[in-house]
Amino acid sequence: MGFPILSVMLAVPLAAAIACLFLGRSAARALALVATLVNLGLGIVLWASYDIGGAQWQFTERANLFAGFQYALGIDGIALMLIVLSVFLMPICILASWDSIEKRVGEYMAAFLLMETLMIGVFAAQDLFLFYIMFEAGLIPMYLIIGVWGGANRIYASYKFFLYTLLGSVLMLIAMLWMVNVAGTTSIPALMQHDFPAGAQTWLWLAFFASFAVKMPMWPVHTWLPDAHVQAPTAGSVILAGVLLKMGGYGFIRFSLPMFPDASAQFMWLVFGLSMAAVIITSLIALVQHDMKKLIAYSSVAHMAIVTAGLFAFNVQGLEGAMVMMLSHGLVSGALFLCVGVIYDRLHTREIDRYGGLAINMPKYALFFMLFTMASIGLPGTSGFVAEFLSLAGVYEQSSLATLVLTTGIILGAAYMLYLYRRVAFGVQKHADAAAMPDLDRREWLMLAPIAAAVLWMGVYPESFIAPMRKDIATLEARLAYASPAGDAALREAPPRAFPANTMAHKAPAEEAR
Amino acid sequence: MNSILIIVFAPLLAAIVGGLGNRLFGNTIVKLLTTGALFLSAALSWPIFLSFVTGGAEATVVPVLDWVRSGDLVFDWALRVDALTAVMLVVITSVSALVHLYSWGYMDEDPDQPRFFAYLSLFTFAMLMLVTADNLVQMFFGWEGVGLASYLLIGFWFRKPSANAAAIKAFVVNRVGDLGFMLGIFGTFLVFGTVSIPEILAAAPGMNGATIGFLGWRVSTMDLLAILLFIGAMGKSAQLGLHTWLPDAMEGPTPVSALIHAATMVTAGVFMVCRLSPMFEAAPVALTVVTVVGAATCIFAATVGTTQWDIKRVIAYSTCSQLGYMFFAAGVGAYGAAMFHLFTHAFFKALLFLGAGSVIHAMHHEQDMRYYGGLRRHIPLTFWAMMAGTLAITGVGIYDLHLGFAGFWSKDAIIEVAFARGTEAASFAFWMGVLAALLTSFYSWRLVFLTFFGKPRWAQSEHIQHAVHDGHGHAADANPPSQEDAGEDVAHAVPHPAHGDGTGGYHPHESPLTMLIPLGLLSIGAILAGQIFAPTFLDNAGFWGGSIFYNENLIHAMHGVPGLVKYAAFIVMVIGFVIAWYGYVRNTRFPGMVAEQLGPIYRFVFNKWYFDELYNIVFVKPAFWLGRQFWQKGDVGLIDRFGPNGAAWVVEQGAAGAKRFQSGYLTSYALIMLLGLVAAITWVLF
To answer: Which residue of B has its CA nearest to A367?
Structure first.
């Protein structure tokens, strides 16, 4: 057994978190930054040394604990990319909190670092209960970040967040206990191969769905998200949108689909229906928001609907598109929340009307904001396009109707994002205080530039990100193939019609002369 | 190093370096860099085009980079060059290079010049990616890239609310078309298992007759795919129904209108239909749709163009109308004629826009033709350039002498071929085309007469008054004047102490050389492009080399139409000229009388058939209304009320005691959860 890199990645932020509790402000900040950067370095090593096309589970570690409960870690390509996303966003979050968090800095950094441990733990866990602990414990630091360092209405928001997510989890826990009892193992890889009886799958699927749908969040259990985002500090929003929402999608692709293929097929239209409703309804709601963070939060719900639809398309394009959408949305929505944070730090309001004409006094900011706006609406060349295109291409193979409805999201998305951009960055400078705001400083530039580079990279050459996941997704598709419903677009070939469109009889030469 | 790589990527490089380094380098270097890159691209494009004309070249594909590999869905970055691409290459790079040069003069006093030039070069790059695409997805990349550049350039003067509104409108309306395009690509992939254009085109004839499910119906496969893709083309090329963004796009600086909204981007839809012509040939219903939509747009836009006062809007509607010609040419199967009109139109329409820009420049950003008049003697070079453009667009030429301006060759060919095709849709297109040719002649000459003939009517113009009061000051001549009050053309009723000659004491000046050279070069194109290239585009199947569907019999039939059909366009052109001359030179009260007589019809046409008002009522307002309902009534009133808030109420009623456990300490939460979990596991396993 080699270097236990996953355990180290869990341990580094955890140790730093404990240390931060006892440190002063600037020392805590510095330590948090160093710890997250170390983890970023480890994440890059992990990515570079991942053997594409090799064993399904790599970097495995295993230690028996009490009562059949195992400390088992290991990743496949899907988990790898989500871990890379997490460790990539963490240092940026620390930078984003550098000046804006002033009270209880040590505790704040500790909460963030603890969350990093738990996030990596969720994606790396190979034991069902280890996963569950990480999955649920991730709520606690987030709950505290919103509840302690949040805005004016933070108690209501954190309470709503906790209530929603915990309620779903209870059902999932019961299902997990039942599964372990029946299958006799807590190992996730083993459970992914286990064939549960089709009748039981229905109930298990619904129990897991209750938890993952809230985490995604899917319409209509999304209403905690706008409040949580609005009240959370900037970095909290970044992690919430960037990584925590991805746990729902990860849950679907790790549990619901491979463990319950029959039930997944059975509920395909439930997922499609909720996704379609989400795209239309939340996009329209985003159009009328006055609060920047709320607008982006609602747009997140619409984007996550593309993920769920892609996942349940039962084909490679849908699954890969959904995964790319998770990565892309993690970057783009994180960056958009950072963009909001940058101007919130200056003016302390999220009210869209209080800004305007920022392209004049903040041109660098306006450029970044434009790039992320375009990535959000899926302009080709950015990550958003690859994600949207692949997911929707996958969905089309199942249902043209669902695709038509989901694709209207590109129209509505353009409308609400450009409308937002116009009100913030274009127009005249109506407010003197907004007009006096300075452009990005070096710290802010350091936060946004790496994300911008990643967004373009993923848009132009997504192969770097798709390649590690390819084999796992192919395996998953093969497992799902037997249950996959027939698409509605069934092609029926027939002999060519009697007339090709523009046949012209050749006229006699005499007629032709003029 | 393959020259196509330089042609495509030089503008991108210039845009990036110039756009990001604008503060570092300053105006002149950025302008030199971008303009230089474009002239380089143009210089490299013409040899490629000429090698296809002389018949020595073959289609090539230059791979650049892998893009996406997802199961069977594989597409790469690659540059395809064949005859069809070569035509587009010269059009795009030539017009773009000239527009870059022209902008040196036109944008001279704008404070944001590097940004402007970077956007222009970025646009050119995206457009080149579009026309060199070897697969549908790269075409879509270019498609959206030009959309982005168009959005940025329409909203270039971003302080102005109307420019921002127009920019968003352009993007969003185009996205409606893109919805069709995307569904078309998905469907194509589903049917053919590939998005590679050559593979699709090779397989398309075999699919003729197949059916496919769509939204629960069973429809003809090829018709469905072709119509979905054509919806995309309708958006980009501003065809009836999705045209509303194009007139508003005139909010952008005039060089932008010339490059993007006349010569290149808006023709992308026509290019797409031609590129995919073997696919459309397997879809007779779709072709009928293309023909009818093209013909309807052609006549619709021409009617509106006759009534507008803003010089740029007249030309914008004219563009819309000419695009209609190209589409119905493609719809009847004459893709060569469609591409030929695209080619000649690029020259004379860019010329007309740049000429209009020169007039606007001379008239201190006044765009309302009611305040023009008598400019012939003050800006003679601009006048002659506009004359060349007008002669070209109206299609002046004598059939039996084989002599004519550019538009004569291409437009007459389209009208003839529609007649020769002989189907019902084609006949409709023929009659609409002839009628639109009359209107084209009328509105084009109306523009010339209102602008260059008669007596000066400048004194009433607020822009001119500004100029005179500012001591003809150029400080105000930069970006701001056009920002502050363009668009409200009704508020010009301020009486002014008349300088008896109507000039208001203003002296228009001819434009600088950087603007006049492009006008001169484009004039040459407008005069000669048809004459020189007609045999190549229309009659030479070898030139196209299979890059479009070429219907030899149809072209024979086109040459065999009766003499009256051949002269139809000429006759209506003369009629249009005479009416315009009578109404705007001879008896200037006549148009007002006609407008009054026609009352409701005139208002209907003047208000652009009320499309904007209709869409506002049907789409825009309901979207915002629904958004508010879903938010306040749905999320807040229903979900929250009965969801979390309801649960909270229940919890609060019964569980006051549980508050003790909500200590807020991280460790106690974690501990409780862990203990609970351990208990549960123990219960299950033992």
So the answer is: B20
Report residue B476 CA to chain centroid gap.
Answer: 30
Angle between helices B406-421 and B335-362 (to 10 degrees): 140
Q: What is the dihedral of CA A445, A448, A449, A451, to 10 degrees?
A: 160
The answer, yes or no, to whether ipTM is higher than 0.85 is: yes
Q: State the CB neighbour count (10 A cutoff) for residue B637.
A: 12
Q: Does A357 touch chain B (CB under 8 A)?
A: yes
- pLDDT over 70 (residue B571): yes
Contact with chain B for residue A53, Cβ under 8 A = no
Segment A130-167, tens digit of pLDDT: 899 888 888 888 888 888 887 778 778 777 777 777 77
Nearest chain B residue (CA) to A486: B213
Distance CA A201, CA A206 (A): 8
pLDDT band at A503 (very low <50, low <70, confident <90, very high): low
* Residue that is written with structure tokens 């208002």 in the block: B603
Q: Which residue has the tokens 């030899």?
A: B552
C-alpha to C-alpha distances, A394 to A250, A400, B93, B219, nearest whole angstrom: 18, 10, 37, 21
Answer whether residue B487 shows pLDDT above 60: no
With a CB cutoff of 8 Å and minimum separation 6, the contacts of A92 are: A238, A334, A338, A447, A450, A451
Q: Which residues, numbered 20 to 49 in chain A, qualify as contacts with chain B under a Cβ-Cβ cut-off of 8 Å?
A: none
A417 near A299, Cβ under 8 Å?
yes
> Model pTM?
0.90
Mutate to test the interface with A, among B8, B68, B138 (most CBs of A within 10 A): B68
The full 3-state SS of B610-654, as one line of letters, equals HHHHHHHHHHHHHHHHHHHHHHHHHHHHHHHHHCHHHHHHHHHHH
Chain A residues within 8 A of B179 when measuring between CB atoms: 404, 407-408, 410-411
List CB contacts (< 8 A) between B626 and chain A.
Answer: 284
pLDDT in tens, B596-631: 888 888 888 888 888 888 888 888 888 888 888 888
CA B389 vs. chain centroid, Å, equals 19
Question: Residue B161 is nearest to which of A111, A181, A427, comparing CB atoms?
Answer: A427
pLDDT digits (tens, 9 = 90+) for A287-334: 999 999 999 999 999 999 999 999 999 899 999 999 999 999 999 999
Spatial separation of the C-alpha atoms in residues B130 and B79, rounded to whole Å: 9
**Distance from C-alpha of B490 to C-alpha of B94, rounded to nearest angstrom:** 37
Task: Give the strand pairing for A491-492 and B211-214.
Answer: antiparallel
